[in-house]
Design a protein that fits this description.
By secondary structure, the chain is α+β, with helices and mostly antiparallel strands. 61% of the residues lie in helices and 11% in strands.
Length: 387
């Protein structure tokens, strides 16, 4: 084994590393093997069709004489010495031609393999240039729809997804940093203003503590929403049984304080909606949608919840009253930190509820649709396909 290891390393060093070189050698070896087989077969057929020389063995000579008794033995024996050199010349010229054609086939193989591998070189160069700043490049390979064309199209699709992901990440980080800076600024201002007073009263300290507490709650809610959104974007591994109707009831109970404060009327029609998926993410999706319906509402308004089964799967629907939302603005509400001006007079939301719902629905293969209602408010439905 110790003697074989250096030999294997030497073979690996000598073996061509380039695919084009390996293909050229493969073409040449295959041509040489096929040519050698054809040459051997031709030589054997020619040699077998010629008259054989008489054998030295008397017994063999008698047998040959019997086989050639119908031929002119004297004439055949006179031609045999001239046929042997002809066979040798045929063999020599055939071997020389085989060697020359093997070299020519190697050259043609080098040219053909270069043309075949040209798309691969283009893909490699594009991948080498691709970075966070140059993800806009595309191969746009033309030609027949073969394996290389499919590889190039797949690579373009990957670049498209990476470009969208990096763009969304940069926008998300910028928005998150801005949103997290707001509660920190409020806390710092409240503390600085209170400490700047020569003798702050107990009430002033309590007001400052209350403002700081509200800012901390807002920052904590935003961090939790960011973590939930990140977990939803990574997908889910678990597949658990869940009934959307039960999750909707739990969400209503969790939002009871906001519902009571605004005096909202809750209309529920919760039919069984059983499915499988990540139970935690699906519950957070429903909870966020219900929270949004309560938060972005108006005093004395209403919230309507529906769950059940349909031909496509199971569905969850939530609608609420509120200000009129233009149709062209509805799709933008699913973007992170996007809030509609005037949709709500409160600032408790972090602008991630619909984004989280969209991400959770996407990883479960669900479809989310939203539309503004003529009298105001938003109607959102989620349809999860059957397992």
């Amino acid at each position: 084994m110790t003697r074989a290891a250096p030999r294997l390393r030497w073979i690996r060093r000598c073996w061509p590393q380039k695919v084009r070189t390996r293909l050229t050698l493969l073409y040449a070896v295959l041509f040489f093997a096929a040519g050698s087989a054809l040459l051997g077969l031709t030589y054997a057929l020619v040699a077998s069709s010629l008259p054989a020389q008489p054998a030295a063995n008397p017994k063999a000579g008698q047998e040959q004489a019997k086989l050639l008794q119908q031929c002119d033995q004297e004439r055949a024996r006179a031609c045999e010495p001239e046929l042997a050199p002809a066979l040798n010349e045929l063999l020599v010229f055939s071997l020389v031609g085989l060697g020359a054609m093997t070299v020519i086939s190697a050259g043609l193989g080098w040219v053909v393999s270069g043309r075949v591998l040209r798309p691969v070189r283009v893909i490699t160069e594009t991948a080498r240039r691709a970075s966070e700043q140059h993800l806009g490049e595309r191969l746009a390979l033309t030609g027949p729809r073969d394996e290389l064309k499919e590889l190039a199209d797949t690579f373009d699709s990957m670049l498209e997804r990476l470009d969208q992901a990096f763009t969304a990440q940069r926008r998300f980080v910028a928005n998150a940093s801005h949103e997290l800076r707001t509660p920190l600024t409020v806390m710092r201002t409240a503390i600085d203003v209170t400490l700047a007073k020569p003798h702050p009263t107990e009430q002033q300290l309590k007001d400052m503590a209350a403002r700081v507490r509200r800012s901390i709650d807002r920052a904590e809610a935003m961090i939790g929403a960011l973590l939930t959104l990140a977990a939803a974007d990574q997908g889910h591994d678990s597949s658990e049984f869940i009934d959307l109707a039960t999750s909707a009831e739990d969400a209503i109970d969790a939002a009871a304080a906001g519902i009571e404060r605004l005096g909202l009327r809750v209309d529920t029609e919760l039919e069984p909606a059983e499915t499988t998926g990540d139970q935690l993410l699906l519950e957070q999706m429903i909870g966020n949608l219900v929270d949004n319906a309560v938060l972005h509402n108006e005093p004395g308004g209403w919230v309507r919840l529906r769950t059940g089964a349909c031909d496509a799967g199971v569905y969850f629907q939530v609608a609420n009253s509120g200000p009129v939302i233009p149709d062209e603005v509805v799709p933008t509400l699913f973007e992170p930190f996007r809030r509609l001006e005037g949709r709500t007079g409160r600032s408790d939301g972090v602008g991630l509820g619909l984004s989280i719902a969209q991400s959770v629905a996407t990883v479960h293969g669900a479809a989310v649709s939203a539309r503004g209602q003529p009298d105001g408010g938003l109607d959102i439905s989620v349809v999860i396909p059957r397992s």
